[in-house]
């Protein structure tokens, strides 16, 4: 029996069309747009001026607080302007637009592919390095990575859980990373273990990536402290709380962080970025992005510099199919629909999904038939149908009592509903309102 | 520039739909229908046709002419109510009584609450119980099964197994049924008197297995009901076998299988959580046996389900699903 989480879950068609397509470097466009807010927390403070020359790896915007992240130039060239640009979230964000000239890197960055296994930095130096490199959670949450490495006083880290689950349908970027950069990921795991002062790590991978499981098992043969844990293919296996439940059988209490049960969770892509920052002195200027879709000619995985317009990626990879009616940044379950294809690839962009007109539109909502399928699939044990009803009626007290804030917004309820009810849309509204009320109460 | 569709996540759907669920239940009723047609001949076809037409037309008329909303008759739910109502009626019922039952089922049982999903009581059972109370004589005269003898119009009527037991119970000689393997066999195959669709336990179980396999229903409600009936009647049986018939007889007789698999599991009128479903099922089991054994009606499944339907909203309030981890205790 494969390990999995305990409550709910769904199994959407996997559609991993781009699986095992080797990583390629995306050619540089003429212009990149780098938003200063690509993470959760305060937007970074811009350090460059219009007309200034920048090199690859140069700090162009500085972290503005504890929960914030540095931003680096991903290309060399001239700062063309500093402007408000609509990014993947649909909001205007302050961004640095750089016109690309050549590809000149700072000398301090080690660009070789040689695997560097010796970890020279001390734990504190590692954490500083991760913070300096502007690394955020690359699984999509974009929470600054160094914050998770600093265990709050009174708490104790026991195990590092590496998220290589990639439970979103279509996406394969983490899969390809584990196949092609497995050694680096394992060194990265050791770096993070050293920073945390612990020596137990578990890498959770969904069982549809057997080659990655085998590959990592082979590399970790001599590392008994790093366990590869195959997991049942079940969405949302990669949800933080679900992954912790599946791998170490502990439940993170409502409203608490994983450290409460002694776990630190990092995505494999984040781990790889940490490896590059610590061993190669390379800040976070690129990431792996899957570009895929049912009628897309070339579903594939690319190494993309941050700030490249999504339209450039689509064009270089195979061109936008005629019948595309919806473009998603991220996976089909939790990704965001794009208004503007020129939105840049940011630190949190794990994939670009082109959806055919056939599947782009939602069907019309019908009456709730109380089949309770939403209750059955909810991985948090909530009652989506009830949360939707309560949100419609603005019963905020009841919503709070029914644990609306526990919702992880995985979308399993809306996916399952036979009446096509937009359960998650309503729950998001309910969460927002209740969250505001709870915060105002604390003040 | 391209105009793209914008919507919040998730961007894919399982493809499940109300229609799919309804038509799967209808599909699961086919074996029972065929067995019924085998034993009751054209009566099965005629009663079902009248009930279905009555339900579908009533829903259409109410939605289009009264509520002035798009009609939902294509979703299969009115069709299903019609079939289930027919399955709960004796085969020799007059056409206008059937029609009355169908109109009442949809108009009062379903549409007055707001249509599909909003009804508190199972519409087909509302229709049946309405007829049972309004036309007690017609509703309890059961035509004998006339297998391969469909042209014999005057096959006559007879009592259902439960009616026979009820009678015998008063005389204290119920044990005559206990060793009657033939009677149990007849009840499983369907060669007994009773409502059109309830006679064959086997055909109904086949349909139920299909529904569980297709994940239209879960095992919780059927198992809770049958388990309760078995436990409760076993206790009675061991207490005094001359007055109480054995549990097998109870399980395979009357409308229990039909009610358990197809009526109690109705989405709109059953609880939303597993815990709730178990309580609901146990409640139906207990009330069914109480009515059958101690009540004045020989059969109590319909009443049991309707009573527990009424309790369902309360069950939903108190029976919460297992949450993921309990909240942190604030010290």
UniProtKB/TrEMBL annotation, chain A:
This is Ion-translocating oxidoreductase complex subunit C. Its EC number is 7.-.-.-. The gene is rnfC. Its cofactor is [4Fe-4S] cluster. It is an enzyme of class 7 (translocase). It is found in: Cell membrane. It comes from Balneicella halophila. PANTHER family: ION-TRANSLOCATING OXIDOREDUCTASE COMPLEX SUBUNIT C (PTHR43034). The lineage of its organism: Bacteria, Pseudomonadati, Bacteroidota, Bacteroidia, Bacteroidales. Transmembrane segments: none annotated. Coiled coil: none annotated. It comes from the Bacteria. GO terms for molecular function: 4 iron, 4 sulfur cluster binding; electron transfer activity; metal ion binding. GO terms for biological process: electron transport chain. The keyword Lipid metabolism does not apply. GO terms for cellular component: plasma membrane. Part of a membrane-bound complex that couples electron transfer with translocation of ions across the membrane. The keyword Nucleus does not apply. Signal peptide: none annotated. Binds 2 [4Fe-4S] clusters per subunit.
TrEMBL record, chain B:
It is found in: Cell membrane. Its EC number is 7.-.-.-. Its main location: membrane. One of its GO terms (cellular component) is plasma membrane. The chain crosses the membrane at residues 21-39, 45-62, 93-113, 120-139, 192-212, 219-239, 245-265, 277-295, 301-319. NCBIfam families: rnfD. Part of a membrane-bound complex that couples electron transfer with translocation of ions across the membrane. Belongs to the NqrB/RnfD family. This is Ion-translocating oxidoreductase complex subunit D. The lineage of its organism: Bacteria, Pseudomonadati, Bacteroidota, Bacteroidia, Bacteroidales. The gene is rnfD.
């Amino acid at each position: 029996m494969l390990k999995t989480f305990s409550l709910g879950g769904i199994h959407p068609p996997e559609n991993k069309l781009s699986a095992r397509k080797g990583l390629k470097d995306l050619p540089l466009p003429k212009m990149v747009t780098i938003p200063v807010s690509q993470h959760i927390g305060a937007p970074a403070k811009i350090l460059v001026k219009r007309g200034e020359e920048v090199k690859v790896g140069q700090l162009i915007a500085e972290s503005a607080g504890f929960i914030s992240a540095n931003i680096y130039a991903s290309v060399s060239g001239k700062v063309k302007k500093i402007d408000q640009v609509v990014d993947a979230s649909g909001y205007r964000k302050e961004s640095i637009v750089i016109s690309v000239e050549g590809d000149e890197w700072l000398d301090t960055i080690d660009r070789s592919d040689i695997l560097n296994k010796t970890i020279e930095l001390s734990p504190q130096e590692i954490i500083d390095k991760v913070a300096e490199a502007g690394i955020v959670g690359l699984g999509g949450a974009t929470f600054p990575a160094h914050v998770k490495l600093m265990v709050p006083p009174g708490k104790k880290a026991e195990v590092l859980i590496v998220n290589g689950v990639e439970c979103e349908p279509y996406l394969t970027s983490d899969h390809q990373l584990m196949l092609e950069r497995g050694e680096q990921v394992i060194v990265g795991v050791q770096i993070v273990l050293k920073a945390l002062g612990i020596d137990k790590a578990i890498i959770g991978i969904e069982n549809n990536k057997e080659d990655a499981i085998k590959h990592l098992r082979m590399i970790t043969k001599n590392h008994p402290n790093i366990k590869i844990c195959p997991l049942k293919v079940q969405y949302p296996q990669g949800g933080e709380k679900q992954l912790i439940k599946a791998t170490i059988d502990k439940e993170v209490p409502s409203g608490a962080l994983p450290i409460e049960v002694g776990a630190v969770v990092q995505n494999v892509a984040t781990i790889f970025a940490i490896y590059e920052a610590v061993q190669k002195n390379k800040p976070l200027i690129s990431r792996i992005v899957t570009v895929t879709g049912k009628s897309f000619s070339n579903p594939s995985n690319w190494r993309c510099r941050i700030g490249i317009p999504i339209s450039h990626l689509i064009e270089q990879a195979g061109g936008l199919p005629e019948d595309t009616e919806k473009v998603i940044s991220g996976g089909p379950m939790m990704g965001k629909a794009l208004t503007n294809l020129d939105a840049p690839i940011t630190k949190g962009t794990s994939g670009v999904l082109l959806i055919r007109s056939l599947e782009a539109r939602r069907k019309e909502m019908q009456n709730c038939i109380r089949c309770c399928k939403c209750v059955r699939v909810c991985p948090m044990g909530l009652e989506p149908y009830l949360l939707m009803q309560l949100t419609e009626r603005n019963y905020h007290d009841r919503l709070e009592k029914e644990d609306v804030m526990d919702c992880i917004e995985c979308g399993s309820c809306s996916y399952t509903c036979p009446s096509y009810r937009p359960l998650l849309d309503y729950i998001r509204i309910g969460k927002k309102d209740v969250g505001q009320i709870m915060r105002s109460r604390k003040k | 520039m391209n105009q793209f569709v914008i919507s919040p996540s998730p961007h894919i759907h399982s493809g499940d739909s109300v229609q799919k669920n309804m038509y799967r239940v209808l599909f699961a009723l086919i074996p029972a229908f065929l067995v019924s047609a085998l034993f009751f001949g054209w009566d099965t076809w005629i009663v079902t046709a009248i009930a279905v037409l009555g339900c579908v037309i009533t829903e259409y008329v109410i939605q289009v002419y009264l509520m002035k909303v798009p009609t939902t008759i294509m979703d299969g739910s009115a069709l299903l109510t019609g079939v289930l109502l027919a399955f709960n009626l004796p085969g020799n019922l007059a056409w206008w009584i059937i029609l009355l039952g169908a109109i009442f089922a949809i108009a009062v049982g379903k549409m007055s609450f707001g249509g599909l999903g909003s009804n508190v009581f199972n519409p087909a059972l509302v229709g049946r119980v309405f007829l049972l109370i309004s036309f007690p004589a017609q509703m309890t005269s059961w035509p004998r099964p006339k297998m391969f003898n469909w042209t014999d119009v005057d096959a006559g009527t007879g009592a259902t197994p439960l009616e026979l037991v009820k009678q015998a119970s008063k005389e204290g000689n119920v044990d005559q049924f206990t060793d009657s393997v033939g009677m149990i066999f007849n009840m499983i195959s369907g060669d007994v008197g009773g409502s059109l669709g309830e006679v064959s336990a086997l055909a109904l179980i086949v349909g139920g297995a299909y529904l569980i396999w297709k994940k239209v229903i879960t095992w919780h409600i059927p198992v809770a009901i049958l388990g309760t009936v078995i436990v409760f009647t076993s206790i009675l049986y061991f207490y005094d076998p001359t007055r109480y018939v054995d549990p097998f007889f109870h399980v395979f007789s009357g409308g229990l299988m039909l009610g358990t698999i197809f009526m109690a599991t109705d989405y709109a009128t059953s609880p939303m959580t597993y815990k709730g479903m178990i309580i609901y099922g146990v409640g139906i089991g207990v009330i069914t046996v109480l009515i059958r054994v101690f009540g004045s009606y020989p059969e109590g499944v319909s009443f049991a389900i309707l009573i527990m339907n009424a309790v369902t909203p309360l069950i939903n309030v108190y029976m919460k699903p297992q949450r993921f981890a309990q909240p942190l205790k604030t010290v």
